[in-house]
Write a structure and sequence with these properties.
Number of helices: 5
Strand content: 15-25%
Number of strands: 8
Distance between the termini: 62 Å
Structural class: alpha+beta
Radius of gyration: 22 Å
Oligomer: single chain
Length: 167
Amino acid sequence: MFKALSSETRIKIIKILLNREIHLSGLARELNISVPVMSRHIKLLENVELVKKRVVGNVHLLSANIGSLEELLEPFIEEAEIEINEHDSIFDALKQIPGIEIQRVGENQYITSIDGEKGYYIYEVDGKIPTKSIDEFRPKKNITLELKKLVSVNKKKIEVKIPHKNR
């Protein structure tokens, strides 16, 4: 996988595909390379499952396979081990970890920054998203807690219309 990402062109391809689906020829035009060269880059990325294809009629749309990117980065995720009391919440656990900022919004507490990287974060307990906020969730057994930053797929779509005036 690292070999597939060793090319600056393939990194650019992944960055584009993280933001939208695009046809091979459109991607080639955007990066100003030929379709056959683009096809070879895509084949390498597909072989390591960093790119996936969706077929719509005769059109093959490409997008990044985010799951594979997460798997690739898994060994580099910072890990910590902490202990909490039997009746403590996830909030009490997170307070022990430096670099995690939590803010109260209304009645609940939310993770708003990790190591200075502001954003919206969700938490998972043993691979599942709980229905309770961090200050309400009280584990009954040992758990694995994962914090994930929410990243929007589309930043914003705005239609700007100008009404026709009667002349």
